[in-house]
Structures are given as C-alpha cells and as structure tokens.
Design goal:
12 helices, 11 strands, signal, Bug_dom1, BUG
Length: about 325
C-alpha cells in the first residue's frame, strides 16, 4: 500500500510532466495560430516597405484564418523595431518585415553592431526584390549624373542627399555614387522614405535614392526627375531611365536591388517557420490579389525557403561591408 508521503511527490512529478507536455503541444504548429499575430514594420505608414508588409499580412491572415496585425515601430533605420522583436517570445506570434538594409548594411555602419543578422533572427521567407532609383527635384537644371556632378562641384559643401535612415541602401548607394563622381556630399537621414521624399520634392535636399514604386508615381506626376536605376537592366516602370552602368560605367558594381523578407526571433520552432514559409509560397503561387498588389509596386516575387534570409544577408554583406569600410561610414 502506498503511503500519503510517497504519493505526494509522485503526484507532483506527474503534474510537472503534464505541464511540460502541455507546453510542448502548445508550441506545435498544428494549433498555430490560436491568437492574432503581430507583424512589426520597421518603417512608418506610407512607406514602400510598410505597403509590402501589409500585403503579406493580408494574405497570411487569409491563409492562416487568424488576424495578422501590422505594428509600425520606425526609428534608427529598423533598430527600434529589431529591439522590440528581440524583447518578444520566440513563439511565432511576433514577426518582423525586414529589408536588405537591416540585414546587410545597418549593423555594420556602427563600430559596435547593435545586433547580429546571422544570430538574432530565424528566416520565414524572402518576399521579393525591387530596384532603386536616384532622383532629383525638377527646376534645378539636373537631367543627368553629369549635371549633378557639376552642381556638386559648384557648391562649397557639395550636395545634400537624403535617405530613409543611416545604414539604408539609399544611404550607402548614394554615398558610394557620390564617391565615384568625385564630389563632396552630405548625408541627411530621415525617419522613413516618406519624410525624405517630401524634403526632396520641396528642394530641401538635392537628391535621394528611392524604391522605384515610390519614385515612379512622382516622376509621372512631374514632381521628380530620375537620373539612374540601381539595377542590371532597365525597368518597364521607367523605361527611359538608364541603369547605373549606362549612366556611369565606373559605378556598375552598384547595380544591386533592394529586397524584403519576413523573419522571426531566433529560437522559433522550425515547424512554425516552415508553416509560415508554406503560407508565403501559397500567397506567391496562388493568391492573385497578393501577386497583383506587389507587382504593382514593381516587386519581383521570388521563391524562398526559411534559410534564404540568412543566405541572402551573408551574400550581400560580403559586398557592403568592404564598401562601408572604404567610405569610412562606420560610427560609434
């Protein structure tokens, strides 16, 4: 006969095992998601990145049968959003839309990197790529890179160029281009692309590199003049705009499109990552609304596995990090 003194420890042990089993079951993808998912956007509403984020959120919600709520946390070119993600549980209920900038440039423009793209995130999927365009406001007499070079040489401090933030592709590409033109230039960071676009159209800055989906509408409205496309081939959206190699052969190495991905906090269950990746693939392959909305932004959709975000990040960082060192862009 079992005494009360021996039964109590056994009951406690069984209760502990039940709790562990319940926790393990709760983490399995079969019941996921049982509540809304928050998708953190690292740029403000109205930006190209935010628009792409919302397209994925809408389709993922349809596929998962659960709300995917976009939470905008702009600032420091994504660092605030990244820190917020890192403060959340690695349970698949907090995701982050992240760009080439945050994965391959931003951490390396600081001498003490604020995060590690290869260790702080687990990839869900790379959504697609989009070319960038260097543009200037009309009324300045600038129609080519040679005109921009001439203007910069005529001013004591050269030109002022904007970007959505320190460490963004726009920051690095324009800095590298100014260096190749051999002219002085001052970087003016903004909180998001929209704020920089407003300053550009108001002639508060001389030039800015923009996502083509943002630039094209303003070009067609006569509010911007495009000078060069940072891509390997011309875009059907702006067919008269030369590629960077056509506009300045010495800058052909700058033909690098931006890309956007969805990631989770490191340590997220591989089963959940695979589930979310499968959702993305279904959106890409079979959801007409998803495809048409992204293609309207000139995003080229791409197939992807969960590991691609890290692979793409390592590939591009191998190009950007030496350039950051060469231009002396890293600061404290």
């Amino acid at each position: 006969m079992t005494s009360a003194s021996t039964r109590a420890p056994r009951l406690l042990a069984l209760a502990a095992l039940a709790c562990l089993a319940g926790g393990a079951l709760a983490q399995q993808p079969g019941g996921y998601p049982t509540k809304p998912i928050q998708l953190i956007a690292q740029q403000p509403p109205g930006s190209g990145s935010d628009a792409m984020t919302r397209v994925w959120a809408d389709c993922a919600a349809r596929e998962l049968g659960q709300a995917v709520v976009v939470q905008n946390k702009p600032g420091a070119n994504g660092i605030l959003a990244i820190n917020y993600l890192k403060s959340q549980p690695a349970d698949g209920y907090s995701l982050l839309s992240i760009g080439m900038s945050q994965m391959t440039i931003t951490p390396y423009v600081y001498k003490q990197p604020p995060y590690d793209p290869q260790h702080d995130f687990d990839g869900v999927a790379v959504l697609g790529t989009s070319p960038l365009v260097l543009a200037v406001p009309p009324g300045m007499g600038i129609a080519s890179l040679a005109d921009l070079q001439k203007l910069a040489r005529s001013k004591p401090g050269g030109i002022n160029f904007g970007s959505p933030g320190k460490g963004s592709p726009a920051h690095l590409l324009t800095s590298a281009l100014v260096d190749k033109l051999g002219v002085p230039g001052t970087h003016v960071p903004f909180v998001g692309e929209g704020a920089g676009l407003t300053a550009l159209m108001g002639q508060q800055i001389h030039a800015m590199t923009l996502v083509i989906g943002t630039a094209a509408a303003q070009v067609k409205a006569g509010k911007l003049v495009p000078l060069a496309l940072f891509g390997a081939q011309r875009s059907a959206l702006l067919p008269d705009v030369p590629t960077i190699a056509e506009a300045l052969p010495a800058a052909s190495d700058l033909a690098r499109p931006a890309w956007i991905a969805v990631v989770a906090k490191a340590g997220t269950s591989p089963e959940l990552l695979n589930r979310l990746n499968a959702v993305t693939e279904r959106c890409r392959g079979g959801d007409a609304q998803y495809k048409s909305r992204l293609e309207a932004m000139n995003v080229t959709l791409t197939t992807s596995t969960p590991g691609d975000a890290r692979t793409w990040a390592a590939r591009d960082a191998a190009v950007w990090r030496p350039l950051i060192d060469k231009l002396g862009l890293a600061t404290e």
